[in-house]
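Recap quiz, item 2
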Amino acid sequence: MELRIPPHEMLARFEDVNIAAPMVRYSKLPFRELVSSYEAHITHTPMILAKEFSRSSSARASDFTTSKSERGIFTMRERRPARTGPIDLDLEANLAHDSVHSGVQVQGALVAQFAATDARTFADACELISPYVDGVDLNCGCPQSWAYQEHIGSYLLRQPETVRDIIRGAHDRCGWNFPVSIKIRVDDDTRCTQRLVETAIQAGASHISIHGRTRHQASTAPVSLSAISFAVSCAKGLVPTVANGDIFTLSDARSIRSETGVDGVMAARGLLANPALFADEGKNGTPDEAVKRFVKLGVGYGLQFGSIHRHVAFMLESRLTRPGMKYLNSLVSTPALLDFLAEIGILDGGPLL
Ligand SMILES: Cc1cc2nc3c(=O)[nH]c(=O)nc-3n(C[C@H](O)[C@H](O)[C@H](O)COP(=O)(O)O)c2cc1C
């Protein structure tokens, strides 16, 4: 029987925890199930507007669907407890041997991300979704101007008291064991990062994900590892931390982990291009099998053609020629897309489902 634990406990207890980032329009059920089959241990829904979600059942139906099979089952290695005192070389060798050979079977975790500007709407949304997820996350990073004007997303980066009230409100409503995390961007003014991280932890944040760009930086700007490390230092080891930004390969994941001292790593665009990025199968680029599996999941779950099409375009971008990409972009139906994938040898032309 696999272990079922909340995301922050997974981060605290196991090595090399990999996370699929929240992505509006993209991190829906079929994509989450796909990346969960390739070593993404924690997945996120796209950002959901808490106000709409709690107000309207049709918004709930369109914003969130889940299935029993979306979480993966993983063999994970327990972290070695920090030891003090003189090192016993025999003991070290035994522990190293044990940690290689004794993996623990762990079920993946699903986190719903909400955008909210006040405690009540966030708590309402959390209460409605809590039976179906393993935790909720407060978006404190969306940089878009409409979001800033609505006082959600990155607006909250400099509103630590509001973040505190939102986290506390969710705990009051859903219980203090219900995990409430936050996802932040770094700030040019490091005092703001420090206040936000410290206040969120005091309010009971379960873990903190840190995107190493400021709200003014485009996704083409390089991520600041030193800014992530600073945020990690503000958490003082009281809760797990996660680094996010510019992870496109397994080796990027390893180096950002070791350079910032985080407990987990989170990828967004890298997983769109290669959903197997965290797995051995993805080390030479997007496996055909991932494209095939995604199309099957998308069709099976009734994902709209436009969404399936965009995902496939992301996955094939690096290997199609310009005319090939142009042709792919011109397709307007699922059967035409399936024919194209069969033509280029990704689908074998047999029945998909
Ligand atoms: C298409 C897209 C949609 C995104 N939607 C969200 C979202 O819903 N919530 C969120 O916190 N961040 C969102 N982001 C930001 C990512 O989660 C992530 O922080 C950012 O892309 C940096 O990671 P990366 O360099 O791995 O792409 C989105 C990014 C992309 C590319």
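Residues 257 and 265 are 7 Å apart (CA to CA).
Residues 288-343 form one domain.
End of item.
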